[in-house]
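pipeline stage [seq->struct] | target=Methylthioribose-1-phosphate isomerase | organism=Allorhodopirellula heiligendammensis | residues=355
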Amino acid sequence: MPDAETIRYRAADSGAPAAVDLLDQTRLPGEVSRLVCTDLSALHDAIVRLVVRGAPAIGIAAAYGVTLARIESSATPDEVRETYRSAIDYLATSRPTAVNLFWALDRMRTVVDSLEDAAIAELPSRLAAEAIQIHQEDRAMCREMGRHGAPLFSECRTVLTHCNAGSLATSAYGTALAPIYYLHEQGHLLAVYADETRPLLQGARLTAWELSQAGVNVTVCTDSMAGGLMRRGMIDAVVVGADRIAACGDVANKIGTYPLAVLARYHAIPFYVVAPTNTFDLELASGDLIPIEQRGEDEVRYASGQASGVMTVPREANVINPAFDVTPAELVSAIITERGVIEEPNAVRIQEHFG
């Protein structure tokens, strides 16, 4: 496991404001640096700019972010609640697809709404405690996903993964990479092919970095190489994370995931999704209802993903940049959660998984 923590938190103390300390993933792998946010605007911007990214990590960061709201000493109980509610609503606008964001913020809203006027002075500490609890729960869930998923990969020599769903996308250990880390600790050394993941290269920059830091054998391939590698028998399984899973088992994940699932099915290779139960949106009947974030054209138009880089698409050409696509449940071999494994997921099996 890489040593760099994705998210650190400092509660308000002795006049010092609360702070959310983020590993700046926009600078990896060339530079390991951190961004400290002490106000809502800075944290909102950090989420939008992908300083912190990955559905579980976004939820954790946003939960901590609620505690950054500034409360006037003269505020009434109702004004205190309204300030925190406004902070929650603002943070919810940062990324539309990752349901973990809204799950975490709903938990923070419950704390705000449940405290009586007589105990309103305790609200900042109660919110900090809830955010810390969300963070701790994520660590435990990641470990359990690794444990439950490991047997599915025990006969594999190589796996292909897409985007980044490791320790950088969570509190630690990861989702899609959790079984790989778990097996690595047990001495079963899988080789990983990491799709570069256009347009922002999260696989090349982030997955390859953290696996290398952990001593895992990783090889970066361009997104367009996946089919050729499968045809040559070089891939034993595909494993990805998720940003939202519908009640039927349709999975929204980083753009480029759906074609991998199609290729895996054609080549009779298992396609696994690893995600905590808080990534499921059981109110959505199908993946067609999942909102897909549309990001700025400069991420595609420039090699570095920003206007300061080298232009690779002429200004006269149009650009489309959906951040996610949806993989139908029928292409998913299994979904692995902290509760266990859902084989050939569908609405009935998912409902049974939730008990």
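stage status: PASS
auto-comment: The chain has two domains: 7-138, 144-353. Residues 349 and 355 are 10 Å apart (CA to CA).
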